[in-house]
Design a protein that fits this description.
Length: about 200
């Protein structure tokens, strides 16, 4: 089994045709999450993939509790093998909202963010890692519609997007749903600029 090491954490990778392999976007989100997370926080990662970001947080932040969801069963299996508590579901489905369930200090998502036409889809479960629908924001928009229901008062989100995802549209939706918005990290990678957008619940 192939493994990688990042910030004191060894991560087992799944088969590359079934599970998203951590890449520049994963590293940028992990770095931003390490800056944001405080000891003892309760964190949720949506779309954990191999479990890379969650595992890095668990290895580096004392007393942190991390939960994750993932739609791809192969990825959920891989995240579990990396010690991440993950349930296989679509976004938040199955989690109870607000004070009737668990709520989180911080919620993370590196979503499928590429605008994707029918003939650009990749076969099988791996398509969920890339396919952002025609706008690049279809899954992200569904996430943004729901996320505040799972945050503690004053809670925060970190979302990875690319310059081709449409920063202005993402910012506008976040502000409409009650968040203050800023960009906490950026990195130019070949044809795109990756960025981590932070939303603070006001
Ligand atoms: C770009 S990959 C990121 C994986 C990992 N978080 C990382 O940073 O390496 C996006 C992940 O989100 C998952 N995903 C896509 N749509 C989802 C949904 N509706 N619910 C849960 N997970 C989803 C994909 O299967 C994929 O593993």
């Amino acid at each position: 089994m192939v493994e990688i090491e990042y910030k004191n954490t060894r991560i087992k990778l799944g088969p590359s045709d079934l599970v998203y392999e951590p890449a520049e976007d994963s590293f940028l989100l992990a770095d931003a999450a390490l800056e944001e997370a405080k000891p003892g926080m309760c964190v949720l990662e949506i779309g954990a993939g191999s479990g890379f970001v969650s595992a890095v947080l668990k290895a580096n932040v004392e007393g942190i509790r991390v939960f994750a969801t993932e739609i791809n069963p192969h990825a959920a299996h891989c995240a579990k093998a990396n010690g991440v508590e993950v349930i296989r579901t679509d976004l938040f489905r199955g989690l109870k909202k607000g004070n009737r369930g668990i709520s989180f200090d911080l919620i993370l998502f590196n979503p499928p963010y590429l605008p994707t036409s029918e003939d650009e889809k990749v076969p099988g479960w791996l398509n969920y890692a890339f396919d952002g629908g025609a706008s690049g924001r279809e899954t992200l928009d569904r996430f943004l519609d729901e996320v505040r229901n799972y945050l503690k008062p004053g809670g925060r989100i970190l979302v990875l997007i690319s310059s081709i995802t449409g920063l202005e549209a993402v910012k506008e939706k976040l502000m409409k749903t009650g968040f203050e918005v800023d960009i906490v990290l950026k990195k130019k990678v070949s044809f795109e600029e990756l960025m981590v957008v932070r939303g603070k619940l006001v």
